[in-house]
Design brief:
With about 750 residues, this protein is α+β, with helices and mostly antiparallel strands. It folds into five domains: about 10-15 and about 95-415, Zn peptidases (Aminopeptidase); about 35-90, Metallocarboxypeptidase-like (Alpha-Beta Plaits, 2-Layer Sandwich), CATH 3.30.70; about 425-520, Immunoglobulin-like; about 530-690, Jelly Rolls; about 700-754. It contains 15 helices and 34 strands. The strands form six sheets. An eight-stranded mixed sheet has the order 5-6-8-7-9-12-10-11, with helices on both faces. Strands 14, 16, 17, 20, 21 and 22 form a six-stranded mixed sheet that branches. The longest helix is centred in the middle third of the chain and has 20 residues, at about 400-415. The chain binds N~2~-sulfamoyl-L-arginine (0X9) and zinc ion.
């Protein structure tokens, strides 16, 4: 399907001309309101709860506990009547104010790195539109934006089409949307994270390039535009669209308005209800235009309607009246999506049938699944709900939510559109040292229609246009394969692609068109002058006034308290702020891990992996995890990084030359501080390295293990190469591996790098 691209100028004109955002009216007050989670034990109890409820937050009532918004007085009544309940939000007004203040405070600080939105704050509609336009503006060859139509109030519903260059008419389509429910603010950034990744990682990430060159993506980050605008201007916890129902009530639930068992169970005919279904299926302009748009797609394979909250991956059937022919396959995909989410940041999203949560007739993803024959999913984002305002999670949840939901989108798309799934870690195509010989490990997994692969091959060449040579790929079991890639001189490249065959005999290259456009890794002469994987201590100092939780080097004990479960690089050990059972976090002050002095007078980059968990989210003056840099041997320190996102290993690097200036007296330190003994802050670092620019043309022939440094470890590497008769053994360059190469190795070692 082809649609025209609208220009940015056109977009901005539409924004300027519409009724966005700045509505003058006072926000609705939630004074005296609480949110409670009720565990009901009978129909009578539930009926009583609903009678006293102001607004239903669970949006449907099933067998499990239900979250409702209710006045403090009514909560007291229920308590007296002996109904089992737990207060989730004690003071909803205070919580809404807290959120508004946090958003405003963050917006007052310039932090966006040039983007219209980022993942550290919530943003109003106009910023989301600006971000979509920004991405399209960056790569018009990869993305275009257009309205699929207008909302009830005449606002544009923007959709971005992302796909690789070339004719997309034969590519299957995948559709993603968020914020069909206005108050579910954390969902739009997830859809935008996908878009950003598709556009910005296309050149550098083979997985993304493959998914762009073989799939036609349609992403609608803010579907219920009117409701979203209203949730910002007037009523933070608004859910529906803004239909005037004519009797003093407003709003139709756009997730009960689709022509799939419309009017069935779990949808209300009462106009004031949060799940009001509308006057007929597709009575609303929003559902009409989305329906008409999706009907133009000729091969829609998969769809996610992104919601919050509860951490779920739901699929059809959504009511007991619906019949789902492909039940097992849907559940299998949902389980893989859930696994991908779990692997991202450790959050578990339960994969299950919608109907097992509660019946909901007329829901969007049941329509895409059962009427269009795509695989339709409803993802419910963070948090689980217990103890938190589910629609207003702290802004520090936005990034991890976006990351994990994006992982689910990608896996879903692969399972539904790829003949086979290739998993190639980034480390396989990271920059090579010159002459490096690198073992890579990758997986070839089944997709839905082709559960097994055979004929796995790797093709590689050095620099440019020559023909590819097949490299042996060794099966390691469980769909895993190993191969060795060899780099040549610096300023050349290592180029390669993978190949496998499906059960039906189709040969699949990864990435698609890999023989024409392979994966390209640079080869550099940069030298690794420092490398710490946590296994030995290369001279760090631990200091600080913390009364507990000082830095130590250990294998993560994984005793709970959200310590990391493993180190980062797989060597076993890493640096941790205490590693004991129970109270292992930082308390009573700061603990500082300080490096020895390094000479980076011709420039240098510090790379590391870090991990943190701050259970209280009060990162601030006396509660922080930072990286500091000294260029004068440790007399003066500057803050280089201040981390606030909990939950998983992340990598970062500091270009010392450009950020602080070249110096022969570099020291870095990792400082973790926590003063309140009631708070929990746990941190870890691993895989710390420093790379300095080398002169291209410099060779270290005796660097037999190819790590860029001459060290005694190269001797054992040479012995191993000699025993294996491998090319690295040939130190006198006579083309053979012989005992004469031993004295050549010694001579080369003494000659150093030149
Ligand atoms: O009720 C909904 O529309 C969705 N949940 S939300 O809390 N975000 O409103 C879930 C609908 C999923 N489908 C079924 N449960 N059948
Ligand atoms: Zn929802």
């Amino acid at each position: 399907m082809k649609r025209t691209r609208s220009s940015i100028a056109f977009t901005l004109a539409v924004i300027a001309g519409s009724t966005f955002g700045q509505v003058a009216s006072e926000p609705k007050s939630y004074e005296g309101q609480q949110v409670i989670r009720v565990t009901h034990h009978s129909g009578e109890e539930l009926a009583r709860v609903l009678e006293l409820t102001e607004s239903l937050w669970s949006e449907g009532v099933g067998r499990g506990p239900v979250d409702v918004q209710m006045s403090r007085e009514n909560v007291e009544l229920l308590r007296k009547e002996g109904i089992e309940l737990e207060v989730v939000v004690d003071d909803l007004q205070a919580d809404a104010e807290r959120e508004r203040a946090e958003i405003a405070a963050k917006r007052a600080v310039a932090h966006l790195g040039g983007d219209a939105i980022d993942y550290s704050n919530y943003y109003p509609f106009a910023d989301h539109v600006a971000f979509m336009n920004q991405l399209v503006g960056e790569r018009p060859d990869l993305a275009s934006i257009s309205t699929i139509g207008q909302s009830l109030q005449g606002n544009p519903i923007w959709t971005v089409n992302a796909t690789g260059p070339g004719d997309a008419s034969n590519r299957p389509q995948v559709a993603i949307n968020a914020t069909i429910h206005a108050r579910e603010w954390i969902t739009s950034p997830a859809a935008e994270y996908l878009l950003e990744s598709l556009v910005r990682d296309y050149d550098s990430n083979p997985r993304i390039r493959n998914l762009m060159d073989t799939v036609d993506w349609y992403v609608t980050p803010v579907f219920n535009v009117d409701g979203y605008l209203y949730s910002w201007s007037t009523e933070r916890y608004w859910r529906k669209n803004r239909r005037n129902n004519g009797n003093g009530t407003f709003g139709v639930d756009l997730n009960r308005n689709w022509d799939i068992d419309w009017g069935g169970n779990g949808a209300s005919s009462n106009t004031s209800d949060e799940t009001y279904r509308g006057t007929s299926a597709f009575s609303e302009p929003e559902t009409q235009v989305m329906r008409d748009f999706l009907l133009t797609l000729d091969d829609l394979r998969a769809h996610v309607d992104t919601h919050s909250y509860s951490q779920l991956v739901l699929h059809a059937p959504g009511t007991f009246a619906q019949v789902t022919p492909n039940q097992a396959a849907l559940q299998a995909v949902a389980e893989d999506m859930s696994d991908a989410i779990l692997a991202t940041n450790g959050a578990f999203y339960t994969p299950q049938r919608g109907v097992d949560l509660y019946e909901a007739a007329g829901a969007f993803s049941d329509w895409t699944g059962l009427v269009l024959g795509a695989f339709g999913f409803t993802i419910e984002a963070r948090p689980t709900g217990g103890g938190l305002n589910g629609f207003s999670p702290p802004a520090s949840d936005i990034l991890p939510a976006a990351e994990e939901i994006n992982a689910a989108y990608l896996v879903m798309a692969e399972l539904r559109t790829q003949p086979l799934r290739f998993v190639l870690p980034e480390s396989a195509y990271a920059t090579f040292q010159q002459d490096e010989s690198r073992s890579i490990v990758f997986s070839v997994l089944g997709a839905l229609n082709n559960p097994a692969a055979s004929g796995v091959k790797v093709f590689a060449r050095q620099s440019g246009s020559g023909s590819f040579t097949e490299i042996t790929a060794t099966s390691m079991g469980n769909g895993m394969y190993g191969a060795t890639l060899n780099a040549g001189d610096c300023d050349t490249t290592v180029e390669f692609y993978l190949q496998a065959m499906t059960t039906t005999g189709t040969v699949v290259d990864f990435p698609a068109n890999g023989a024409t456009v392979p994966i390209v890794a640079d080869v550099t002469a940069d030298m690794l002058v420092f490398s710490d994987n946590g296994e030995t201590d290369p001279g760090w100092t631990v200091s600080g006034n913390a009364t507990d939780g000082q830095w130590q080097r250990a294998i993560p004990a994984n005793f709970g308290r959200s310590d990391p479960t493993t180190d980062f690089d797989g060597s076993g050990r890493c640096w941790l702020t205490d590693n004991g059972e129970s109270n292992s976090d930082v308390d009573g002050g700061v603990t500082i891990l300080t490096s020895p002095v390094f000479d980076v007078s011709s420039g240098g980059t510090v790379n590391y992996a870090y991990w943190m968990n701050d259970e209280t989210n009060t990162i601030g003056a006396e509660d922080y995890f930072r990286v500091e840099v000294s260029t004068d041997g440790g007399s003066n320190w500057s803050i280089a990084r201040n981390y606030t996102t909990s939950g998983s290993w992340r990598t970062d690097s500091i270009d010392i030359g450009s950020e602080f200036g070249n110096t022969s007296q570099l020291r870095i330190r990792f400082a973790a501080a926590e003063n309140d003994p009631g708070d929990v802050l746990e941190c870890a670092v691993d895989a710390i390295s420093i790379v300095v620019p080398g002169e291209c043309g410099t060779t270290c022939v005796a660097d037999t293990n190819g790590d860029g440094i001459l060290s005694p470890a190269d001797f054992s590497a040479w012995v191993a190469a000699f025993n294996a008769m491998s090319p690295a053994c040939d130190q006198n360059a006579d083309g053979v591996c012989s005992p004469a190469d031993f004295s050549a190795w010694v001579a080369n070692y003494n000659a150093g790098c030149n």
